[in-house]
Amino acid sequence: MKVYLKWMVVGVFLLVVQSAITAEMPMMNHGGGKMLMDMSGRMVMGQNTDKLPDGCRKISEDVKITVHAGHKYAKPYPGTIFGYSEHQWKVKPCARVTVTLVNDDNVRHQWMLHGLPEDLYPMEMFHIEVTGPGDVTGTFIVPKEHKTYLVHCDIAQHTEKGMKAQLIVGNGSGDLPGIPGISDPLVKDDYSPGGFGHRMVSSLQNAIANGGSAIFSGMLVLGFVAAILGAPYFFRFLGERIFGMSGKEVSAYFFDRIMELVCYLIDLISALIAMIRSPKKT
């Protein structure tokens, strides 16, 4: 027992030492400061702290932004799973912007901005990311043009799941679509007017009224029952093992998508029934 306790103490000590070394280790510099990265999963790409874009005579202002990323920030926005703590920032033309991204999840998140001058920013973007809980900071200088820039997380499906924002330079060029809390959502909530639940009920009623009740009985009903009973267990496993979120949250997202597809199929079947039953013109 004493031997096991001794090795346990040694293991904890080594983990503490490793964490301390990693925390003190500076980020490795690649490409003359335009790409920084370290072993803990932090990365900065397209950093620019002093080179002015064309037309900028000086730095107009220094702006510091701290934004959190994680699935808990998606809760106010139906149909999303991941999110930022803020979804919009405003700066002056030729401003120097320093962004600190704080990741509150156990997965990788990014703060990526597109459309910058290609001569200063590789692939016209500024990009910071951190894997797992932690933070990373990077700096860039915006051009003089009044423009609205897209900000998002480019990890697969994270943009579609809610990690989308905008940076407005000067007067901007209008709001971008689908920004949570800023512009119209791409997916409407359940039974709000025009939402997929509302459309589903209306489509079922129309189909039954047109004589298509047999299509929605039998196997379809059994399929719905099986899906409803089995979905919570499947999505809990999927969310915990793959996406790093609760089963309830990933279940809500996939259920919304499945029901949206069902709604479209019902609309299609209803339209076909109406066409078949409508009298032919002579």
Would you write up a description of this structure?
With 282 residues, the protein is an alpha+beta fold. The protein folds into two domains: 28-169, Cupredoxins -  blue copper proteins (Immunoglobulin-like, Sandwich); 196-277, no CATH class. The protein has helices spanning 2-24, 196-209, 219-243, 247-277; strands at 28-30, 35-37, 42-45, 62-70, 83-84, 88-91, 96-103, 108-114, 125-131, 134-141, 147-152, 164-169. The strands form two sheets. Strands 1-2-3-9-8-11-12-6 form an eight-stranded mixed sheet, with no helix packed on it. Helix 2 runs parallel beside helix 4 (247-277) and helix 3 runs antiparallel to helix 4 (247-277). Residues 12-25, 189-193 and 212-216 have low confidence and may be disordered.
Blueprint of the fold:
Layout: H1 2-24, E1 28-30, E2 35-37, E3 42-45, E4 62-70, E5 83-84, E6 88-91, E7 96-103, E8 108-114, E9 125-131, E10 134-141, E11 147-152, E12 164-169, H2 196-209, H3 219-243, H4 247-277
Helix pairs in contact: 2-4, 3-4
Number of strand elements? 12
Give the overall shape.
elongated
- Spatial arrangement of strands, main beta sheet: 1-2-3-9-8-11-12-6
Strand composition percent: 15-25%
Q: Helicity level, as a percent range?
A: 25-40%
Identify the quaternary structure here: single chain
- Number of DSSP helical runs: 4
CATH architecture of the largest domain: Sandwich
